[in-house]
Amino acid sequence: MTNAFAEHALDRLRATVLSFPKVVVAFSGGVDSGLLAYVAHDVLGPDRALAVTAVSPSLAPSELADCRRLAGIWGLRHSEVETDEVRRADYVANGADRCYHCKSELMEKLLPFAQSEDAVIALGVNLDDLNDHRPGQAAARERGAVFPLVQAGLDKDAVRECARWLRLDIWDKPAAACLASRVPYGTAVTFSTLAQVAAAEEALKQLGFRELRVRHYGDMARIEFGGAEIERAAGAARADVVEAVKQAGYRYVTLDLEGLRSGNLNAGILNGDAPVSGVVA
Description:
The chain is an alpha/beta fold. The protein is 46% helix and 12% strand.
């Protein structure tokens, strides 16, 4: 992609953000919400743009730390709010609509900020996200949220190119969906499960791996690494990988030879094979 492409995409995003008098950006530290928060701060100023990070067991500690780091570097007006989705029975049950209940909780916690700011709530949803199973988008729309990246016509590649053009160091940051996405539908999402997944993934990152998912299957972890990292995980680093994941509480450690596929647990839903309601296991 060319510099002209990034400039035009950014112009569209800036114009979209400027169409809102004030915004509250749901800021999770990823490239999508990061670009949105940065641009909102840039074009609206700190008095009209607030970035809010939802803090819960489904947010990895390293992601929270990155939110705080980025807010400081970029000079964002930044707040944090605790969300309690893990206390919602429908979320814990982990049916195919889990994301709906998660976003419902997020919106309920962000609405007071929006009301006090007289602002709209903006989420970092891009065009590619519309093609995946994302029931949380419906929950957000029902409560008045807006998706500026979609309105500006930005897909994931365009988001990354814009962030790179702005020299934001998150432009190539691997996607990091909420930790609940590591738990197969129908298996209960609990505090202990999320903590176990977070510990295993953090330990693997400490070994130098960047792109990974630890899929939770009871006492077994199925690890997906980015294509370039599978060989190292199965070779020179194999013993360290096994030890790191076992230290997080797993008894069995398996490597998925297909590698990292973001959102692959949604495949059954997109094919119409998964139930809407989860079964607590």
